[in-house]
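Worked example 3. Consider a protein that binds XIL.
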Amino acid sequence: MQSRRTALKAILFAGVTGPVLVVNFPAAAQAATSLKEAYKGDFLIGAAINEAQITGKDARGDAIVEAQFNSISPENALKWEHVHPLPGKYDFVIPDQYVAFGEKNGMFIVGHTLVWHNQVPDWVFHDDKGDLLARDALLARMRDHIHTVVGRYKGRIQSWDVVNEALNEDGSLRQSLWYKIIGEDYIAKAFEYAHEADPQVQLTYNDYSLENAAKRNGAIALVTKLQAEGVPIMSVGLQGHDGLDWPTVEQQDATIAAFAKLGVKVVISELDIDVLPKATKEQTADVTLNIAQNPALNPYPNGLPDSVQQQLAKRYADLFGVFLKHRDAVTRVTFWGVTDADSWRNDWPVKGRTAYPLLFDRAGQPKPAYEAVIKVASR
Ligand code: XIL
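Given these inputs, the predicted complex is written out as structure tokens:
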């Protein structure tokens, strides 16, 4: 009788408000909430979506995105080489569908990314003769790109990663062609142009390994300088391409605290946690790495052992504990992909590995790490 009443109550509640936790409910049903519900009032929960998800070809992926997430990022669709492949030629077919997908689902829509040294065609930096452009010509090109892309989605994309990965590991500015041709104010200019194009949109500086003190200090100096110059920077994105032991909980905590102190919001912008053996000595997310395959680097081709599954779950719980602690500063936590099958980690920094960095497995099922993340929220 008792259990029938409980079941009936659950059905009634589910009818008006969606899945509801009811005392005495079996454990499996308790987990039937969603990530976005679990963290409601704390921060948004996002996923980077790929072309198959944007175009509806991956119906299973889309169903997970719609059920679990309230923010999306474009894994590749808005990078310069895709949206602006040739001089004067913009291609908005996929980006338009990306934004429409987010609008249809009432999601917080992220733009990624305007100014980066990767996934940008060579022609951007060269004239017709193949010579490097002069500062003013490159600034004009940058302004045209930013105005065209940001302007097209004005009021529809809520946050832009304006500059991506401008720092070296020691905290100095990366000697990219943006830097070499324009000078260090290329960063301020990019933010100014984005602000002109959409004065309401949230503007973010995004980078990896800011949890390491030297690079973090470089970013703090950069943000402080931009703020002193009146540049409209509103948030810092910590990419979060993490491992089982990096960054430590202390590093994560200190990093979020340091940016919060500057008065900017913090976004965890590209979260994934790699359980595979490290293929590089340094902690990096340099997308150009391509390290030789080797079976020792691919230990779980047929499935993740339960012990590692549990380690991953604990690790996710620990990091979400830190994010929650800083819920006043952290506005969004975005995973870099939906299921393990989608993750760029299967091909980076070594091609053809079987990676397990996300909360949903290759069959689209929630992993123990998913339950662990939900559990942290119900503190
Ligand atoms: C990655 C994508 O996931 C891959 O599909 C693509 O081949 C390379 O870029 N930092 C970033 C992201 O800012 O844009 C990168 O995304 C991962 C590292």
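Take a moment to read the result before moving on. The chain has 14 helices and nine strands. Confidence is low (pLDDT under 50) at residues 1-29.
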